[in-house]
C-alpha cells in the first residue's frame, strides 16, 4: 500500500482518488476551498463536478496542505493548469527530496511558455516531476469504464512505479519517456477541441470534425517535433487519442465551450455557462506564441485565438480556413 496526496478536489482529482483507493492505496484529497472539503466529508461525492460517483469512506479530505503533502509516497497535482505554479510554490516546503509529483492537468503557462512539469521543477527543485495523461474523462473513470492512459517520466523507474500504483482491470497505463510530447499533445488538443465545438455549434457535420481532428494533430505534431518531441507520441494515446476524445465527447468542457461560442456566445459567456475551467482558453495564446517562436504554421489555433480574443465570428474563422492557399497535404511525399 502506498500513501498518496491528491492536490486538487475537482472532478479529475476525485476520479483518480477513486482509482487509487480501489487499488488499496491510502488517499488524502486536498482543496483550498473549505466548502468543497465540507461537502466531500459530508456526502463523499462531488455533487457539482462528479455527481453520482461515491468516494470511499477510507479517503481523507483536508484543507491542510501540509497534511496532504508531508510523508506521502507520491503526490498527484490535479489543480487547473493556471494554478499549478502557485500551488507548487505553497507545497514546496512540505515536499521531501526526490518526491514523485504527477501532473494530471493540461496546459502551457502563457507568460513563460513552460509546460506544467517544468513549472513544478522550477518551484520544487528536488521534485521528480512526472505526467499522467491520455484519452480520459473523469465522468467515465469514476464509473469504472475501461480507460487507457500513459505515465511519462524522465526515469523508467518512476514511470513504471506510477504504472504499478494506478493500473487495474479497467484502468490500463502505458509508460513513456517523452514527457514533452505528452504535455504538448495534452495542452494543445484542448485548443483544437474548442474549434471542433465551434463547428458543432455552427451546425456543421462529421466531415468538418474529421478535418479539424486530422489537421489539428498535424499542427500539434509540427510544433511538438520542432521542440524536440517524438512523432510517435503524437500518433499515440496522448496525441491523436486524447484529441479524438476531447473533440467528440459530450463530457468535454472545451468542446462544450466551443459549441456555445459557435452559437454566438462570447468566450466569457461560454466559460460562465460551462462552470468549469476551460483549459483550452488558457493554452491558446501560449500555443500561438510557441508557433511564432519555433516558426511553425498553426492556422487552426490562430483562428481559435481570433475567435476567443478578437471577437471574430466562428463562421468567418471556418471560412478563412477553407479558403487558405492551395497546398499538398504532406510536403514530404514526392510524385513518382
What's this entry about, in short?
This protein has 336 residues and is α/β, with parallel strands linked by helices.
How would you describe the overall organization of this protein?
The chain is α/β, with parallel strands linked by helices. 51% of the residues lie in helices and 12% in strands. The protein is built from 16 helices and 8 strands. It has helices at residues 11-22, 34-43, 65-69, 84-91, 116-123, 138-142, 156-166, 179-201, 206-227, 231-234, 237-248, 253-262, 267-274, 279-293, 299-309, 314-322; strands at 3-7, 26-30, 60-62, 74-77, 100-103, 128-133, 147-152, 171-176. An 8-stranded mixed beta sheet has the order 3-2-1-4-5-6-7-8, sandwiched between helices. α4 links the parallel β4 (74-77) and β5 (100-103). α9 runs antiparallel to α11. The termini are far apart. 51% of the residues are buried.
From the alpha-carbon coordinates, what is the Rg to the nearest angstrom? 20 Å
Distance between the termini: 60 Å
Low-confidence blocks of residues: none
Mean pLDDT, to the nearest integer, reads 94
* Overall helicity: 40-55%
Strand order of the largest sheet: 3-2-1-4-5-6-7-8
> How many DSSP helices?
16
Structural class: alpha/beta
Amino acid at each position: 500500500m502506498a500513501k498518496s496526496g491528491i492536490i486538487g478536489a475537482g472532478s479529475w482529482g476525485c476520479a483518480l482518488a477513486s482509482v487509487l483507493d480501489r487499488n488499496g492505496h491510502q488517499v488524502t484529497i486536498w482543496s483550498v476551498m473549505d466548502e468543497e472539503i465540507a461537502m466531500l466529508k459530508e456526502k463523499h461525492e462531488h455533487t457539482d463536478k462528479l455527481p453520482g460517483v461515491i468516494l470511499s469512506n477510507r479517503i481523507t479530505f483536508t484543507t491542510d496542505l501540509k497534511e496532504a503533502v508531508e510523508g506521502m509516497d507520491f503526490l498527484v497535482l490535479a489543480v487547473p493548469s493556471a494554478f499549478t505554479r502557485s500551488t507548487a510554490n505553497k507545497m514546496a516546503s512540505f515536499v521531501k527530496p526526490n518526491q514523485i509529483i504527477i501532473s494530471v492537468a493540461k496546459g502551457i503557462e502563457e507568460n513563460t511558455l513552460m509546460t506544467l512539469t517544468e513549472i513544478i521543477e522550477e518551484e520544487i527543485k528536488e521534485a521528480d516531476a512526472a505526467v499522467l495523461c491520455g484519452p480520459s474523462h473523469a465522468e467515465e473513470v469514476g464509473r469504472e469504464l475501461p480507460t487507457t492512459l500513459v505515465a511519462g517520466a524522465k526515469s523508467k523507474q518512476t514511470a513504471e512505479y506510477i504504472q504499478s500504483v494506478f493500473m487495474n482491470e479497467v484502468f490500463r497505463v502505458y509508460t513513456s519517456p517523452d514527457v514533452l510530447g505528452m504535455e504538448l499533445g495534452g495542452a494543445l488538443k484542448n485548443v483544437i477541441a474548442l474549434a471542433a465545438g465551434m463547428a458543432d455549434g455552427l451546425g456543421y457535420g462529421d466531415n468538418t470534425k474529421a478535418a479539424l481532428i486530422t489537421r489539428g494533430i498535424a499542427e500539434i505534431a509540427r510544433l511538438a517535433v520542432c521542440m524536440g518531441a517524438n512523432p510517435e507520441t503524437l500518433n499515440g494515446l496522448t496525441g491523436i487519442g486524447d484529441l479524438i476524445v476531447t473533440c467528440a465527447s459530450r463530457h468535454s468542457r472545451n468542446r462544450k465551450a466551443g459549441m456555445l461560442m459557435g452559437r454566438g456566445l462570447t468566450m466569457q459567456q461560454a466559460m460562465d455557462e460551462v462552470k468549469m475551467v476551460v483549459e483550452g482558453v488558457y493554452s491558446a495564446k501560449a500555443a500561438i506564441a510557441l508557433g511564432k517562436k519555433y516558426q511553425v504554421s498553426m492556422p487552426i489555433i490562430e483562428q481559435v485565438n481570433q475567435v476567443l480574443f478578437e471577437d471574430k465570428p466562428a463562421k468567418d474563422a471556418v471560412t478563412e480556413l477553407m479558403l487558405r492557399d492551395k497546398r499538398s497535404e504532406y510536403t514530404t511525399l514526392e510524385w513518382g
